[in-house]
Amino acid sequence: MCGRYASTKDPALLAAEFDAVDATGDEAPGADYNIAPTKHVMAVVERKPEDEELERSIRVMRWGLVPHWAKDLSGAAKMINARAESVLTKPAYKQSAMKRRCILPADGWYEWQPGEGRKQPYFITLGDGASLAMAGIWSVWWKDDVPTVTCAVLTTDAIGAMTEVHHRMPLLLPRDRWSAWLDPTSLDPSELLAPDPSIVDALELRPVSMAVNSVKNNNPSLMERVSLNEEEKPAPTLFELS
């Protein structure tokens, strides 16, 4: 699953990294080290305005997808993730998966590994400064002619070392899948819904402070590695973290 993540780059940097234009205007959220459901986030989309060429841009969305037919925004926090296995069949997600796909850039995401008495948080990142491209979908909900653009992160069964932390993980897109995923003219993304092992193999699983448990904490130290002494160490895993 993906219930918290970090995105700290400004829209200009993301635009350069994702070969996009910055269309956030004055709406761009600042660096956020502890993004929680219903916060505003930046997303990469490709759209073709009438009589114009296809354009890839950085936009601002609200995390927690709200279908256009929903009565209100109250269900958004429960729809931050969409299962890749069923996204093309679930009524709440199907149209978005076919026509409104996006990429949610992230420095990394947080996951909690079960242990004796408490869960140990990990920050999962590429560790080289490159953004993770989390596959997402988006929708527009209207009230009084005012649109609210919302999104969800797609998740898959965990693979590789990720299985030692959680049974689910975000669907991460390698660069060579970006264009196909964002293409609004392609209505069947089914071939892109399986996780790419090469990205998972490159991930760094970094134990971090329990401070990330509180959404009130929001600073760079949340992403920093901490040492796990014997009293804090969770159950043994198949991988070793120095």
Structural account:
- It is globular and about 60 Å long.
- The longest helix has 8 residues, at 175-182.
- A hairpin with a 2-residue loop joins strand 10 (132-143) and strand 11.
- The chain has helices at 11-17, 94-99, 175-182, 197-202; strands spanning 5-7, 21-22, 32-35, 40-47, 55-63, 81-83, 101-106, 108-113, 120-125, 132-143, 146-157, 168-170, 204-207.
- The protein has four helices and 13 strands.
- Residues 233-242 have low confidence and may be disordered.
- The strands form two sheets. Strands 2, 4, 5, 6, 7, 10, 11 and 12 form an eight-stranded mixed β-sheet that branches.
Strand-residue fraction?
Answer: 25-35%
Between the first and last Cα atoms, what is the distance in angstroms?
Answer: 25 Å
Mean of residue pLDDT values:
92
Count of β-strands? 13
Q: Tell the overall outline.
A: globular
How large, in whole angstroms, is the Cα Rg?
A: 18 Å
- Segments where pLDDT lies below 50 for 5+ residues? 233-242
Q: Which structural class do the helices and strands define?
A: mainly beta
- What profile does the largest beta sheet have? 8 strands, mixed
Spell out the blueprint of helices and strands.
Elements: E1 5-7, H1 11-17, E2 21-22, E3 32-35, E4 40-47, E5 55-63, E6 81-83, H2 94-99, E7 101-106, E8 108-113, E9 120-125, E10 132-143, E11 146-157, E12 168-170, H3 175-182, H4 197-202, E13 204-207
Parallel strand pairs: 2-5, 5-11, 6-11
Antiparallel strand pairs: 1-3, 1-8, 4-5, 7-10, 8-9, 9-13, 10-11, 11-12
TL;DR of this structure?
The chain is mainly β and 242 residues long.
